């Protein structure tokens, strides 16, 4: 696991906008997700994708995603599945699409919200293998996908790069298993703001 189940200490560096997550064995509670906007940039081999993360709406999913980003878990991950007109998927360090782990070391529950829909290009959601099986993999849609509503946890949307980087990624040829014939990698992630930077720890 990337951090223990009991407590996560979060230190924000204003200069670099990166986070150091420290674990402690002592019992404690992290009060997080103050309602404020935050975003991250996915730096890929085909350009940048800036994403707004819905921390207030889906706090557990946002916490998992932010912690994975901050720990460099996603660095150099392949986009292993690419379906034109549908979506592109990443988040498995093995590059196979069969692995990946949450910060808790086990799958975590869905956070389905009726107000969050697959109603546009650039919706960001957790990939899963069934209800309540979220780990680290996620996908970004290329178009509206209403048939996915209620089945996958939406935790963000693309706010920059939908017409440039996503276009470039969508055009990459794939094999008969929708695996890109040329590598598309998520090289690293920049965190621009974190709503749990002011979180108070009790313990």
TrEMBL record:
According to UniProt, the name of this protein is Peptidyl-prolyl cis-trans isomerase
Question: Could you tell me what this protein does?
Answer: PPIases accelerate the folding of proteins. It catalyzes the cis-trans isomerization of proline imidic peptide bonds in oligopeptides.
* Homology family: Belongs to the cyclophilin-type PPIase family. PPIL3 subfamily.
| Gene3D superfamilies linked to this entry | Cyclophilin-like
Residue ranges of every copy of the PPIase cyclophilin-type domain listed in the record: 43-191
Which UniProt keyword terms apply here?
A: Isomerase, Rotamase, Signal
User: Which positions, given as ranges, span the membrane?
Assistant: none
The species this protein belongs to is: Gloeophyllum trabeum (strain ATCC 11539 / FP-39264 / Madison 617)
GO biological processes = protein folding
User: Does the keyword field hold Isomerase?
Assistant: yes
One annotated GO molecular function: peptidyl-prolyl cis-trans isomerase activity
* Listed GO CC annotations: catalytic step 2 spliceosome
Which reactions appear under catalytic activity for this entry?
[protein]-peptidylproline (omega=180) = [protein]-peptidylproline (omega=0)
* Classification via InterPro entries: Cyclophilin-like_dom_sf, Cyclophilin-type_PPIase_CS, Cyclophilin-type_PPIase_dom, Cyclophilin_A-like
- Signal sequence, start to end: 1-17
Query: Lineage, please?
Result: Eukaryota, Fungi, Dikarya, Basidiomycota, Agaricomycotina
Q: What class of enzyme is it?
A: isomerase
State its Enzyme Commission number(s): 5.2.1.8
